[in-house]
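[Q] Does anyone have a clean C-alpha cell version of this?
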Amino acid sequence: MKLVTLATCNLNQWALDFQGNLERILESIAEAKNKGARYRLGPELEITGYGCEDAFLEEDTFLHAWESFAEIIDNDLTEDILCDIGIPIMHKNVRYNCRIFVLNRKILLIRPKLSLANDGNYREARWFTAWHQKRPVEDYHLPHIIRKITNQQTVPIGLASIATRDTVIATETCEELFTPNSPHIHLGLDGIEIITNGSASHHQLRKLNQRLDLIRSATTKSGGVYLYANQQGCDGGRLYFDGCALIAINGEIVTRGTQFSIEDVEVITATVDLEEVRSYRGAIGSRSVQASQANPIPRIPVNFELTTARRIPPSNLEMMSYHTPEEEIAYGPACWLWDYLRRSGSGGFFLPLSGGADSSSTAAIVGSMCKMVIKAVASGNQQVIADAQRILGKDHSYLPTNPREFANRIFHTCYMESENSSKATRNRAKAIAEQVGAYHLNINIDLVVSALLSTFITLTGKTPKFRVKGGNDIENTALQNIQARIRMVLSYFLAQLLLWVRGGKGSLLVLGSANVDESLRGYVTKYDCSSADINPIGGISKTDLRRFLNWAVDDLGYTSLIDVIVALPTAELEPVTKDYTQEDEADMGMTYEELSRFGILRKIYRCGPVSMFEKLVYEWNHLAPSEVAEKVKRFFFYYSINRHKMTTLTPAYHAESYSPDDNRFDLRQFLYNARWTWQFKKIDQLVQELNSEKKN
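[A] Here you go.
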C-alpha cells in the first residue's frame, strides 16, 4: 500500500480582509498538519478573497497579497507540508488568477488559471487574463519581500505538475472543471495521480449535484485522486459560497465537508492508497492506449514524499446525500445573513412583517439563523460566541443558549396596518414573530397616509379615489403606492432608533421580502418596504417559498405558518368590498407558476417574445393559442415597463438562475418599447397559422 493523507478545506474568506483571511489560512494549514496531512489545498484567491471584483484592478491588492503570502511562508508552518494557495499575481504587466505551491519556505510553482469564469455572476475576464495552454513554463521574478524569505530570484510560472519522490500532483482551478476540455483529462492521461481544484463556487438551488457529478466524472474514466476546496460563506456580495470541500478516488467520494455552516474554518482529510489508482488505471486498456500518446506536461521535481509510513487504514467511502431545496432555503440564506450581520457592524435586523408568505418566509429564515448560531455556541465555537457577544454589546460572560431569546435581541419586526389591512394578517404576523422570538411591534399608518393625502388635496384641489370607489387606474395605483412607500420610510426610521429605545447601541439592517418572481414581473412598488438593505429571498421563487413554508412548519417548529400557507396572497392596499378583494395573481394577470416559467424561458433559455410563444403554445396545450399569446404579450409588456425597477433592486441572496437582478446577473436594458410592435405582430401571425392548421 502507498498511503497518502491529504487535506482540503472550506474557508469563510472576506474580500480585502487580508488580516482575517491570513488568520484563517494559517489555521487551516495548522489543522491539516495536526491531522497528519502532507498536502493542503485552499480555495480560489483565498488570500484576497474571491469577491474583490474591481479591487483586482488596484495595485494595492497585489501588494497586500504578497505581503500576506510572506506572512504564511516566513515561519515553520509550511515545513513538511506541501501547500497549494490561491493568490492573484501580476506577471509581465498582466494579471493572473493563480495557484502557488510552497514547501519548506520555497515556492515550487505558480500555476495560472487557464479558463476564466465569465458568465452569470462572474466577470473574471474583466480583471484577469487566461494563461494560454500552449505557452511554456517560464520564469517569474519574485518581489523583494519574497526573495528575502525564500532566497529565490525566479520561480516557474505556467502549466506544470509537482513530481515528488512517490507521486505526481497537479491542479486545476474552479471553472476549468466545468469546461468541455478540462485540464484533468490531460493531467490524468499524463500519469498525474493527484489532481486538485481550489474553487469559489456559489450556491444555487438544486446545483450541488452538478458539481459533484463533474468531480466524480473527473476520475471515473481515468482514475486518480481528486481534491476540491471551496470558499464557504458571504465574502461581501450577493453570493453565498457553499463549501462542500471533498476528496474522491476513482470516481467515488471518500469524504466531504459541510455545505451550509457558520464555521470559519473547516478542514477535512482522507487517507487514500495510490496503489488503488495505479491498479484502476492499469486495468483500462483504452486509457492506456491514449495515455501512451499523451503530450507530456512539464514536471517540477521536489525532494519530498507524500506517502506515510504510519500504519493507518485508508478512509472509507462516503454515501452521497443532498439537501432538499427546502433545506437549502432554510440554511443557505441563514448563513448569508449571519455573515452579513457580523461583518456589517449592525446590531440586528428589522423586518416589516405583513403576515404574508414572503415576509413570513424571511422571518422563518432569520429564525433558522438563530437556531444555527445557538447550535454553534453549544458546540463551543469561539468565533460564533465572540461574534454574538460583540453584536449584542455583551461581555464575555454572556452565552446565548436559546434561539428565541437570541432572536428577541437581534430581530425586530413590525406589522404596519392601514384601513385596508385585515385582522387575519395582523394575527398571522404576531404569531410567527412570537414563535421565532422577534421583538414585535404593531402600528397604524393611516394618520401618516391621511396627512400626505391632505397635503396633495390642498396643493392640487383634486382628491384621488380607489378604483372600487370610482377612481381610475392611475388614482388607484398612486393610493396603493403611498401606503407602501410610507412603510419603507417608517422601516428605516424604526431600524435606526429601536436599539436606542431598548437601551442598546447601533442600528438595524432592514430586510426586504420581495421574491424573484415579483421582481421579474415588476410587481413591487419602487422604494416601498421591499426596498431594503439586503433581501434573503430576492432570488427565490414563490413556488419554492411555499414549499419551504410547509417544511418549516415541521422542521423548524413554526406551526403558525400553516395559516400563512392557506391564505390567498394579497397586498392589502385596496379597500375590501362585498364584490372585491385584492389578490396578487389577479392583479398580475398570471399565476406565480406561470410567472416562474416566463422567467426561466426569458433568462435561462434566452427567449424573446416569439420564441417564448412557440415553446409555450405546445407546453400549455390546455390553452388556446390566442390565450397563450395574450399571456406572453402581457408578461413582456409588464416586464418592459417595470424593468427600470431592477436598477434599484435590493441586493438579494442569489439562489435562482433566472434572477432579474440588473446589478450583477441580468445585464439587459431597462428602457424598452413596451409595444414590441414587430415581435407581437409575428406572434399574431403564428396564432392565425395555428388556428388555420386546426381547421384543416
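[Q] Thanks! Anything notable?
[A] The mean pLDDT is 94.
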